[in-house]
Design goal:
The protein has 320 residues and is an all-alpha fold. It folds into two domains: 189 residues, A middle domain of Talin 1 (Up-down Bundle), CATH 1.20.1420; 107 residues. Helices cover 66% and strands 0% of the residues. It has 13 helices and no strands. It is globular, with a radius of gyration of 21 Å. The N terminus and C terminus are likely disordered.
């Protein structure tokens, strides 16, 4: 492995800049048609991803999506190695691999930036999917690879970093597939997707706990409880928000900033809390309708809360 792969410390702005930086498309022999090029690349994908790309009629688009998936799956394969080492050895042995993941994510961001800016054959749905991928991957990559990432870290910290990146890459891969097949789902694309059950249960419980805190803060005239709520909302954003569908992240972050800004004015803050409570109720409703939770597993009932709540006024985007 190159010595450069050991350099973890980076400027977070580099990640954001690379998200919009063009990168040359993969070179194809002049005599090869787009159909041949896409077919050759697709043959290197796992069968479930090859089936997604084979259903894309436009050859140039099929080639583009194939190369995006190739980059995502390469990063996910490195993350799978990270997971194995974290399970067997611990945090000290994974920094080299995280350096590789970081470079793979930057390469993917650059490729997405080039596609978004220069591909004239993208329809609105595909452009929206690619733009969303670019946002969420740059967001999570910047969150993980902070300038202090190279310092010694615990297994828990490394595991959280792995989880953020793995979840991000899997969710964006699924969303891209859904741009071409609305029925595409995680279970079809990833063999380990059943582990999302635990994530959905954790999300459901944390959203309910957050809503309870919001309701208590609304009912209280004291300042300390309201200040505590702000800290709890920020903690949810940092530790649990990534379990939401990525298209909801920006809206949740907007509510965090709105609450923090309104905290100085009691009247404004109460109104923001009311709006946030409606938003949370909508999120909880949609999370409760996820397939893995509608099956009514015993673990889902441990906190005593019903899994299916009454439908709330729709404020935000569906969680899925």
């Amino acid at each position: 492995m190159d010595e450069d792969d050991l350099e973890i410390d980076i400027d977070v702005e580099e990640i954001r800049a690379r998200a919009a930086q063009p990168t040359p498309a993969p070179r194809v022999a002049a005599e090869a048609s787009p159909q041949v090029a896409a077919g050759a690349a697709a043959s290197e994908l796992p069968p479930q991803f090859a089936r997604v790309t084979e259903g894309i009629e436009n050859a140039r688009l099929r080639n583009l999506v194939t190369h995006i998936y190739a980059r995502q799956l390469k990063a996910l394969a490195t993350l799978a190695a990270v997971e194995r080492i974290l399970s067997d050895k611990g945090a000290a042995d994974v920094l080299r691999l995280f350096a590789v993941v970081r470079r793979q994510c930057l390469d993917l961001l650059a490729y997405l930036g080039n596609a978004f800016e220069s591909a004239d054959f993208l329809d609105e749905d595909v452009r929206e999917a690619l733009d969303g991928m670019r946002f969420v991957i740059s967001h999570e990559t910047a969150k993980v690879f902070r300038p202090d990432f190279g310092r010694p870290q615990s297994r828990a910290e490394m595991t959280r970093a792995w989880g953020l990146l793995n979840n991000c890459l899997q969710q964006t891969a699924i969303t891209l597939a859904q741009a071409f097949d609305a029925a595409a789902c995680g279970e079809q694309l990833f063999s380990d997707y059943q582990s999302k059950v635990e994530n959905s249960l954790a999300l459901y419980r944390e959203l309910n706990a957050l809503l309870s805190k919001v309701e208590r803060a609304r009912a209280s005239s004291g300042i300390l409880l309201k200040h505590s709520l702000i800290r709890h909302v920020e903690l949810f954003r940092d530790e649990t928000m990534h379990f939401l569908m990525y298209r909801d992240w920006a809206e949740f972050q907007g509510f965090v900033e709105k609450l923090k800004g309104a905290f100085e004015e009691v009247e404004s803050f109460d109104g923001a809390l009311h709006e946030f409570a409606l938003y949370l109720d909508t999120l909880i409703h949609h999370v409760s309708m996820r397939e893995v939770l509608r099956r009514g597993t015993p673990a889902a009932q441990e906190d005593g809360a019903p899994l299916v709540r009454a439908a709330a006024p729709r404020v935000g985007q569906p969680v899925g």
